[in-house]
Amino acid sequence: HVQLVESGGGSVQAGGSLRLSCTASGYTISDSCVAWFRHATGQEREGVASIDADGETSYVDSVKGRFTVSRDNGKNSVYLQMDSLKLEDTAMYYCAANKYPSFPCTLEPTWKDYWGKGTQVTVS
Which of 5, 17, 81, 97 has the greatest number of CB atoms lying within 10 Å of its CB? Predict the structure, then answer.
């Protein structure tokens, strides 16, 4: 049974930082693609950042230079370091993972078989 559990969300002032964690069980985080998505009230879900099995990363334009996705294979966890946070970063943040390495590693939800329950980030 695969579980992804996010943590690290909270309330922060604009310009501040947060570090989100996504820890997996029943799944090896380094085997495939893991991505962070966010969903703000009244807006569509948006892919934010991804990291593939080779460690290649990808970001949506709005967070480039501010967010960094990384992985700790020993802890079976993926992280999202968020710096210079803006009001528009307020959202529920989810991590999601591909079931198969052969699936494309994109910021689209299409290929994501496993999802966490999310962690709230509020910037004020």
Answer: 97
Report DSSP letters for 35-73, one per residue: EEEEE-TTS--EEEEEE-TT--EEE-GGGTTTEEEEEEG
What contacts 33, CB < 8 A, 6 or more positions away? 50, 51, 52, 53, 97, 98, 101, 103, 104, 105, 106, 111
56-68 in b/e burial notation, b at 16+ Cβ within 10 A?
eebbbeebeeebb
Place of tokens 């991804």: 50
pLDDT value for 101: 82
Tokens 């966010």 belong to 38
End-to-end CA distance of the chain: 37
- Token look-up 């992804």 returns 4
